[in-house]
Design brief:
The complex is a heterodimer of chains A (342) and B (311).
Chain A (H helix, E strand, L loop, with lengths): L1 H29 E6 L4 H15 L2 E6 L2 H9 L5 E4 L5 H6 L2 E16 L9 E3 H9 L8 H6 L11 E5 L4 H13 L1 H6 L12 E3 L1 H11 L3 E6 H6 L3 E2 L1 E3 L5 E2 L3 H9 L25 E9 L3 H17 L1 H6 L3 E2 L2 H13 L4
Helix pairs in contact in A: 5-7
Chain B lengths: L1 H37 L1 H7 L1 H6 L3 E2 L4 E2 L2 H32 L2 H16 L2 H28 L3 H6 L9 H25 L3 H9 L4 H12 L1 H17 L2 H6 L17 H8 L6 H36 L1
Helix pairs in contact in B: 1-14, 2-14, 4-8, 4-11, 5-8, 6-8, 8-11, 9-10, 11-14, 13-14
Classes of the chains: A alpha/beta (342), B mainly alpha (311).
Chain lengths: 342, 311
């Protein structure tokens, strides 16, 4: 009896040991683990599925939020991290990371005005800022009227809606407000979560979209995909060149062309309020972070993103993301070469 | 053989004792230590009194004060229990004393089903349906009724948005009613029928029996039900985050948006990008931990005292 137990326990120990060995062997080659921002999650998951079919390399991406992504890559518990907010070059250096953008997205202000049954409302940075600061409280405020002389605007009060959960969307939106409006910069500032002077917080893009859709006289801001899916009326914006623009793909792409996405600064740049005649003003990129010390793993990660840059634009567009222009992709490849991972 | 049985008994006894000790005492203690350890940066930065009394929560300037969340948690829980308690006790009375026996089973299982609905569904229902209804009908109506009264009017002032303290507490109360009702109902069933029958034989009416026999006899069971559901309301997150409006402010009326500790944690944890921010969130959870501990032990003491009095 005792002998059998001994033999069995030996077997079990060997089996566990063997399994561990086997998984270690395969993990390096067959698995890449990433974690971070939730905004690009549908896209990365889609790209990963395509890449798996082609190469057999499985990419596990966990959308745990940008904060978690940054923490985990700094602690090297994942192979790549993802963030919706670029890290400043000094922070990239001090944490020994690499950083590059993968895809861009646009944020649109959406409104629910029963009197205006289409996307014809025009706002500019100043009025948007006034609304979210609580300085413009009625829809028929002269400042809104001046931009929309031909619209019948109601005398109802405005309910601004914002993201209750900390998010990259909020970071991009508040960065835009800080750029176009000094009061906002002084009183509120920008970040994934800020101290909103007025309004109501809804959870997630879906939450904001739904609340605006169901509540008259509200204004909110969402990723463009959510405005399209929920058939919300978006606001046309006056950009830095003074033109009234629509959130179309070419206008969103134009915002990146004049931007300072620069490899020497680890692509740290805000694409908001970009110059360019037709550029949509509230645009942001989502980023990938790599740990410099893991060169071999990085090469594998880069292979995936290079493949995605070459073959993944259509998928991105189907999911209403905007792919990076070729010029920026070339800059990123140059950056990879510089750090010897491409 | 006898000896072996003896050893087995000792082993099992120690093993079970260890688990009871571990889950009952050590485990909460370890959690407390971890929360304390993680929040040490915030404790060092803001102190205890300052954190508990500051009402600014501003991640941009890195100033964190927990007062709005703490007040929000306490207010919404208090109102929810206030609404739920009479309803739950009423349900329990109806099931045990008044309902015909064929209806008892139906109502009991219907109430138990209510407890099985996941909180996210309450949240979505509240956000998509109830909030609109409250905004367009109930809240303007309440304002019309209460606005002439000086203090009550202030309680119901402000623009009705449907996303506020009132709606949140209402949904919370619906969520805790099944728990409360089933605990209260069980303790009502424990009242010896001898006691009830002797009261009836003395000529007491049904109402008098309920008021003077059933409720006094089961007061500790009722308090127990209240406490259990208070615990649930304190920790409820998903439903509240849909309905609270998520504004870190102390609500000045029932129609203002607010936030609670759990909601702030759920919303901000994933994107907390600085150590101080993360540590402040841990600090909030430490406060919630201590808060629930205090409330539950307070209730426990109350139950013990009541039991003593009725013996």
């Amino acid at each position: 009896m005792r002998k059998i137990i001994w033999i069995l326990s030996f077997f079990i120990i060997f089996a566990i040991y063997g399994c561990k060995k086997a998984s270690e062997r395969t993990e390096v080659k067959k698995f890449l683990n990433g974690a971070g921002a939730s905004f690009p999650y549908p896209l990365y998951a889609n790209w990963a599925a395509g890449y798996y079919k082609l190469t057999g390399i499985k990419i596990n991406y966990q959308s745990i939020g940008s904060g978690g992504g940054i923490r985990q890559i700094a602690e090297k518990t994942v192979d790549f991290g993802a963030s919706d907010m670029p890290l400043p070059p000094e922070e990239v250096e001090s944490k020994k990371l690499l950083q590059f953008p993968t895809v861009i997205g646009a944020i649109v202000p959406v409104v629910n005005l029963p009197e205006v049954k289409n996307s014809h409302l025009i706002l500019d940075g100043k009025t948007l800022c006034g609304i979210y600061l609580g300085e413009i409280i009625k829809w028929n405020d002269p400042r809104i009227k001046a931009l929309n002389p031909e619209l019948e605007l109601p005398a109802n009060s405005i309910t601004p809606v914002y993201r209750a959960d900390a998010s990259g969307t909020t970071a991009i939106f508040t960065k835009y407000l800080s750029q176009v409006c000094n009061d906002w910069k002084k009183e509120v500032g920008f970040g994934t979560a800020v101290k909103w002077p007025i309004g109501i917080g809804a959870k997630g893009n879906e939450g904001v979209a739904n609340y605006v859709k169901r509540t008259p006289y509200t204004i909110g801001y969402v990723e463009i995909a959510y405005a399209v899916q929920n058939r919300l009326f978006y606001v046309r914006l006056k950009n830095s060149a003074g033109n009234v623009v629509e959130p179309e793909e070419k206008n969103i792409k134009e915002a990146t062309l004049y931007s300072s996405l620069d490899p020497s600064k680890h692509f740290y740049a805000w694409l908001t309020n970009a110059p360019g005649k037709e550029a949509w003003p509230i645009v942001g990129a989502t980023y990938i972070l790599l740990s410099r010390e893991k060169k071999d793993t990085n090469k594998e990660v880069i292979k995936f993103f290079d493949w995605a840059f070459k073959n993944g634009d259509q998928v991105a567009e189907n999911l209403t993301y905007v792919p990076l222009p070729e010029e920026i992709k070339e800059k990123i490849r140059f950056y990879w070469k510089k750090y010897e991972i491409y | 053989m006898e000896k072996r049985g003896h050893y087995l008994e000792i082993i099992i006894k120690n093993f079970l004792g260890f688990w009871a000790l571990f889950s009952g005492f050590l485990f909460p203690f370890i959690i407390f230590l971890i929360l304390f350890y993680e929040s040490r940066l915030a404790i060092k930065n803001f102190g205890i009194v300052k954190f508990l009394t500051t009402s600014t929560w501003d991640p941009v300037s890195q100033t964190f004060g927990g007062l709005p969340m703490i007040v929000g948690t306490l207010i919404s829980t208090f109102i929810a229990v206030l609404i739920a308690a009479p309803v739950a006790i009423g349900i329990a009375i109806f099931i045990t004393e008044l309902a015909p026996s064929w209806l008892k089973g139906v109502i009991t299982s219907a109430i138990e089903l209510l407890a099985a609905i996941p909180s996210i569904i309450y949240g979505m229902w509240g956000f998509l349906i109830l909030a609109n209804f409250m905004r367009s009908y109930v809240e303007p109506f309440l304002q019309k009724i209460f606005s002439p009264f000086p203090l009550l009017g202030k309680l119901f002032s402000g623009p009705p948005t449907g996303i506020d303290v009132f709606t949140t507490s209402l949904v919370l109360s619906i969520m805790i009613i099944p728990f409360m009702a089933s605990v209260v109902k069980d303790s009502f069933n424990l009242v010896p029928s001898v006691m009830k029958e002797s009261a009836y034989s003395l000529g007491a009416t049904k109402w008098e029996v309920i008021k003077d026999v059933v409720i006094p006899y089961t007061i500790s069971g009722i308090t127990g039900g209240l406490v259990l559901s208070t615990g649930r309301a304190l920790g409820e997150t998903m439903a509240v985050t849909f309905l609270a409006g998520n504004v870190a402010q102390i609500p000045s009326s029932l129609f203002y948006p607010f936030t609670t500790i759990t909601v702030a944690l759920a919303n901000q944890f994933t994107e907390a990008d600085t150590p101080l921010y993360l540590s402040s969130l841990f600090y909030l959870s430490l406060i919630l931990f201590v808060l629930s501990f205090i409330i539950l032990s307070f209730a426990k003491i109350m139950v013990l005292r009541l039991q003593k009095r009725w013996k």
